[in-house]
User: Fold these one by one.
Assistant:
Number 1:
Amino acid sequence: MQQDFIENLVGEPLIDIYEKVMDGKRLSYNDGLKLYHSNNLTAIGFLANIIREQKHHQNTYFVRNQHINYTNICNKFCKFCGFYAKKGGPKPYEMSLEKIRSVVKKYINYPLTEIHIVGGVNPRLSYNYYLDMLRMIKEIRPDVHIKAFTAVEIVEIARVGKVSIENALKDLIEAGLDSLPGGGIEVLSKRVHQELFQKKLDGDGWLDVARTAAKIGLKQYATMLYGHIETAEERIEHLIQLRELQDETNHFLCMTPLSFHPEGTELSHISTLTGYDDLKNIAISRLMLDNFDHIKSFWIMNTPEITQMSLWYGADDADGLVQDYEITYITGDYGNKKQFLTYDNMTRMIREANRNPIERDSLYREINRGENNSNIRTKAMKRLHVIK
Ligand code: SF4
């Protein structure tokens, strides 16, 4: 009876994938393609949820974090990017160390555990700018975990410092760097690199930074930007390359599929993605990346509502409360609005989805604040996401 129900739910085309999932077997390239070519989202979510619950039961993680996007001046001109300063787009800015000090101090009474720093590739910034930034933040908040600089920024930092990638990473670690964020490569595909971001680091360069980080014990996050010009085949190749690298290094903490937002980019003619696409990519990432502990749904890019749904489609991490994120805006209104969730909003969103909210640090260790889990920002909100 139960078997009949499952066969009806999953459907004949995906039943062999169901059997592999139940037997704990790794999915192949063809399995991944089959999932992308299926429109049975309920079945794909059901399969992903099996693995999600095997790994994490009802637990759903989130972090209290602040973002610092120190400059939007960039010489890479990626076609998918709406963040970098350009004519008719966002105005250029470059934060001085004093400005960074003030944005860190702004949240000094807020119990953050992570500061996430990324920016454009700005050739005017010196090697010491990056090192001093990290040292200063650690001086102000010694307990905070600094997750900073995508692979393309690391290459730039090494270039201006005239040092190897390894030595740049070692210097950054000494100054306060704790892990590397994902990003810096959107999809590991030569074709997409050539068409969308040819001035930026290519796949081999990205893999080199990742391997170097792993070699010196630096943890890293992984991402995939989907919904621009990439094909289903390229998405699967990307996921399999990440999986193989994780087999080799075991240094990735989490995978975040990132939903592409065409507004304000050179690809504004491309249709905006739907919740269907977001849930499908999260679920397929969960199914393909058997050696990744965590799959994150980044609510800034796919909305809190889809993130809430995604907790049944493979995601076990809802990212963070997020302060001062400038890269993408749900409304497409760049540079004018702040985006954050309160602690109460985040935990309510997770509980409403019948999952168990757990505050974590950047290394996925549970944080127990006892009675002090109160909301520091208590502003009443009509909707889950605050755009003010
Ligand atoms: S994605 Fe990064 S490297 Fe590319 S243009 Fe935007 S800021 Fe620059």
Number 2:
Amino acid sequence: MKFDTFELERFQSTWENQVEINISESGVHPLTVDELFALAGQVNAPRVSRRNFPAPLSGTRLGYSQTDGTLVLRQKIARLYRGATTDHVEVTNGGSEANFVTLWRLVERGDEIVVMMPNYMQVWGLGRAFHGRVKEWWLHPVKGTTSPRWVPQGPELKKLVTKKTRLIAVCNPNNPTGAVLKRNFMEEVIARARWADAWVLADEVYQGAELSGAITPSFWSIGDKAPYKKLIVSNSLSKAYGLPGLRIGWLVGSPEAIAHSWAAHDYTSIGPGALNDALAAIALTPAVRKSILERTRNVLRSQWPILEDWAEQNGDTFELIKPQAGAIALLRYKFKMNSTQFAEHLRRQKSVLIVPGDHFHLDGYLRVGFGGHLKELKEGLKRLSQVAARLHGG
Ligand SMILES: Cc1ncc(COP(=O)(O)O)c(C=O)c1O
């Protein structure tokens, strides 16, 4: 099997611990275990007060945990999806394993896969590795009468999805644009999938990290009655919850689809780590979850203006489209240089890591993460404009 290099992941894992300033991250600054305990204690959730908490965790037996996730964790996840039970949920090692298992079990040689672009590129790469025919459904930057946004074109989806389409993969809210699909587009995706009898994979890892605070509806809740029978939702604690180190993700689908995913999961990592599962169950206790998402929104709301003001001051060199969700935004730059070369140049000259648009097949752009450490964000932007000014000026 041949894998395309996963440029974004390879680039980040090579450099993120080598640079002084990392503004390439797509999530908010992660919580420490103490901070998670403090949030849990603050809201006085039963059994997770600061005083009580260490007992259940230190009492966790370090054997194999329930391989599809403990019942208690699956119950907490199921509660987030209308009508779902624990049989609709499979816990995985991050959203990345959730996506992997889904593509692995669904894609056969020659299958058409329609992938929303720009994209995190995992699904795109896996579709190709499993010998699918990847067709790209692009969002476009549109100025319009309201503020500029990245939006899809319905007719393009209609053209791309055929009776040979096996899977439509969307990322909503989207990485790297931070765009959120309007409900009518979500309905259109489902309607088109129904017409083609295709699966839908909705990667919703940025759900809950909306700047407005209005949580993006899940594809699970699209439609009046039951969710579309071939819908699979993937999500994780990595982005909106600021807990990427827990490596806890999940899939939600019909009990049949989930049983099939579980069977595939037996061949990958067997199951999630016992400590991760226990900590995730605390994070998803309703009151704790609410506090975590509030923290995320506070980070986004207080740090977005820093990036926005910076972009305004540097408006002759950069153009920014405001994301609706996620701690990421795409910056279009106005000087002539390839984005990978620029990111390399910035790293070498100023020890700042930023993601080149090339990683999303979008040269001329950079993806900047604004949810990380505040001091690093300010310093990273300062160094970015210094380097860019030299290029733009000369
Ligand atoms: C859209 C999207 N899906 C999935 C993932 C995988 O995240 P994790 O495995 O940490 O849940 C990422 C990570 O950046 C992402 O951006």
